[in-house]
From TrEMBL:
PANTHER family: DIPEPTIDE TRANSPORT ATP-BINDING PROTEIN DPPD, OLIGOPEPTIDE TRANSPORT ATP-BINDING PROTEIN APPD. Its main location: membrane. Belongs to the ABC transporter superfamily. It is a peripheral membrane protein. It is found in: Cell membrane. One of its GO terms (molecular function) is ATP binding. Residues 12-260 form the ABC transporter domain. SMART domains: AAA. PROSITE patterns: ABC_TRANSPORTER_1, ABC_TRANSPORTER_2. This is ABC transporter ATP-binding protein. It comes from Streptomyces macrolidinus. InterPro entries: AAA+_ATPase (IPR003593), ABC_Ni/Peptide_Import (IPR050388), ABC_transporter-like_ATP-bd (IPR003439), ABC_transporter-like_CS (IPR017871), Oligopep_ABC_C (IPR013563), P-loop_NTPase (IPR027417).
Length: 345
C-alpha cells in the first residue's frame, strides 16, 4: 500500500467557524477534527445547533466570507479547501463533492423542470449539449428509482411526491459522479417507508460509485443503519467518536448516553419510559466554561475538583475511538452498570 493510499480522502483538522453578529461572535464550530476514508460513511449526530450543518457547508465553501471566520485545515484528496478561491470551489462543487439538502422542495427551483435542473448541473461541469444533458438526467432519474423517467423528466418539482423530490435531489447530487457526498438530514421530513427506501438507495449508489458519504442526522437509529463511523457533536465540538458498533453498544460520553436513552426501541419492554436530556443546548454566543455539556450532565458532580465546570476535556483518539469527558474509565463502567440495572428494573 502506498503512502497516498493511506491518506484519508477527506481530512478536517482543528476546524473553527465563527460568525460575527450584532450580539457578538457565534462559535458555531470550535476545534473539530475528523477523517473520512474513500467509500466509507461518517455519521455526524447531535441536537439542532450542535454545528453539524455548519461544518459541512464550510467544507463546501458555502459560507459568507464577509461575516464568517474559518480557521483550520480542510483537505479533499490532498487539496486544501480552506482559503481556496471561489472559482476553485465552484469547479469542485457538484463535480468532486456534492450535497443533498434536507428540504428538497425549498432547494429545487419551482420554475424549471426536474430534468433541466439536473441537466444544467451536468452541462456546467462537462460541457455537454442540451440533448446529452437530457439523456443523462433521464439516466440518473432511472438510477434513483423514478418510474417512467423519460416522461417525468419534464415534470416540475410540485408534481413530484416528497420521496420522489428527494430522489431527484440525489440524482442531481450524483449526476457528475462526485467522490464526496454530504447528506444533510435527507430523510427527516419523509415517512418511515420512504426513509428506508432512500437509505437503501444511498447504500446501493455508494456501492456502485464508491462514494464517500457524510450523513448528518439527529437520529441514532439512522446512524445504525448507514454509517461506518460515528462522530457525536455538542456545542460546536466533538464529544465522542468511533466505529458505529462501538459507539452504539458501549458509548463513553454522558451526552451519547442521553441520546440513546431518549430513543424508543422496538425490541425492549413497552413500559420503559424514555429519559429526555434535561435543559437546552448551549448558546454558542456565550458557551459554558469547561465541558459544554456540564450544565445538563447528571454526572458532572461526580468528578473531583469541579473540573467539568472549569476545564475543557481533551478529545484523545486512540485507534479511531475516543471521547471528551473527565470521567475515569472505572466511573464510566460503574455508571453504565447502574443505568443498565435501573432499566432492567
Amino acid at each position: 500500500m502506498t503512502s497516498t493510499d493511506q491518506q484519508p480522502f477527506l481530512s478536517v483538522k482543528d476546524l473553527k467557524v465563527h460568525f460575527s453578529t450584532e450580539d457578538g461572535i457565534v462559535k458555531a464550530v470550535d476545534g473539530l477534527s475528523f477523517d473520512l476514508a474513500r467509500g466509507k460513511t461518517l455519521g455526524i449526530v447531535g441536537e439542532s445547533g450542535s454545528g453539524k450543518s455548519v461544518t459541512n457547508l464550510t467544507i463546501l465553501g458555502l459560507h459568507n466570507p464577509d461575516s464568517t471566520e474559518v480557521e483550520g485545515s480542510i483537505t479533499l484528496d490532498g487539496q486544501e479547501l480552506n482559503g481556496a478561491s471561489e472559482s476553485t470551489l465552484e469547479k469542485l462543487r457538484g463535480n468532486k463533492m456534492a450535497m443533498i439538502f434536507q428540504d428538497a422542495l425549498a432547494s429545487l427551483s419551482p420554475y424549471h423542470t426536474i430534468g433541466r435542473q439536473i441537466g444544467e448541473t451536468y452541462r456546467k461541469h462537462t460541457g455537454a449539449s442540451k440533448q446529452e444533458a437530457r439523456v443523462r438526467a433521464i439516466e440518473m432519474l432511472r438510477r434513483v428509482g423514478i418510474p417512467q423517467p423519460d416522461r417525468r423528466v419534464d415534470d416540475y418539482p410540485h408534481q413530484f411526491s416528497g420521496g420522489m423530490r428527494q430522489r431527484a435531489m440525489i440524482a442531481m447530487a450524483l449526476v457528475c459522479d462526485p467522490e464526496l457526498l454530504i447528506a444533510d438530514e435527507p430523510t427527516t421530513a419523509l415517512d418511515v417507508t420512504v426513509q428506508a427506501q432512500i437509505m437503501d438507495l444511498l447504500k446501493d449508489l455508494q456501492q456502485e460509485f464508491g462514494t464517500s458519504i457524510i450523513f448528518i442526522t439527529h437520529d441514532l437509529g439512522v446512524i445504525a443503519d448507514i454509517a461506518d463511523d460515528v462522530l457525536v457533536m455538542y456545542g460546536g465540538r466533538c464529544v465522542e467518536r468511533g466505529p458505529k458498533e462501538e459507539v452504539l453498544r458501549t458509548p463513553q460520553h454522558p451526552y451519547t448516553w442521553g441520546l440513546l436513552g431518549s430513543m424508543p426501541t422496538l425490541d425492549g419492554p413497552v413500559d420503559v419510559p424514555l429519559t429526555p436530556i434535561p435543559g437546552s443546548p448551549p448558546s454558542l454566543l456565550n458557551p459554558p466554561s469547561g465541558c459544554r455539556f456540564h450544565p445538563r450532565c447528571a454526572f458532572a458532580n461526580k468528578v473531583d475538583g469541579n473540573r467539568c465546570a472549569t476545564e475543557s476535556p481533551v478529545l484523545e483518539i486512540v485507534d479511531g475511538r475516543g471521547n471528551a469527558c473527565h470521567l475515569t474509565d472505572e466511573q464510566r463502567r460503574e455508571f453504565l452498570a447502574d443505568l443498565a440495572a435501573s432499566k432492567a428494573n
